[in-house]
Amino acid sequence: MNMPNRMTQEEKLRGTCRFFGPENAKHECGAGIVFKFEDGGIPCLSWHNSTAVCSKRASFTEEEVKEKLVQRAKVVNDFLIANRSAHDAAKVQGYGKGHGGYGEIDCPVCKTGKLAFKVSAYNGHLWGQCKTDGCVSWME
Ligand SMILES: [Zn+2]
Questions:
Q1: Rounded to the nearest whole angstrom, what is the distance from the C-alpha of residue 90 to the centroid of ligand 1?
Q2: Which of 39, 64, 87, 128 has its CA 20 to 30 A from that of 49?
Q3: Which domain holds residue 5?
């Protein structure tokens, strides 16, 4: 069994139950099963080598795995585009470590919203968020 940090995103998706993901404070999965970490791992992730058995466990289909990989690649790419544009705009304003500030540009990802950004005077890190629901948002 591969260790998680040596697995590719694709391998991780293939080893993850389609219902995995704490949906609420009770840590129920999407199939309504409550996680029990004390059972020596959870059966939702193949690399946990859990001895617990879950009757609802189900894998993603090949199509879903491919779709998710495409979607994740898009999220990374959108972030890179928005992050670069915000950095460029911040540079024009002269923002950086020791000189923080706020700004707003037309979002280069959705092209309809405004991408707000903030530069920390403390460490120069840049935070950004598009005002369009579901568009880019990040913190450095
Ligand atoms: Zn946007």
A1: 17
A2: 64
A3: 1-60
What's the 114 CA to ligand 1 centre distance in angstroms?
Answer: 6
**In a shared domain, residues 43 and 84:** no
Residue 65 resides in a domain: no
Q: Using the mean position of ligand 1's atoms as its centre, give its distance from the Cα of residue 137 in Å.
A: 9
| Centroid of ligand 1 to alpha carbon of 95 (angstroms) | 22
**Ligand 1 center from residue 82 Cα (angstroms):** 8
Q: Of 3-12, 35-44, 113-122, which one has max mean pLDDT?
A: 113-122
* Distance in angstroms (rounded) separating the CA atoms of residues 84 and 19: 35
| Total structural domains within the chain | 2
Task: Answer yes or no: do 80 and 132 share one domain.
Answer: yes
| Residues 131, 132, 133, 138, CA torsion sign | negative
Return the H-helix or E-strand segment holding 73: helix 62-93
- Look up the pTM and report it: 0.70
**pLDDT higher at 49 or 27:** 49
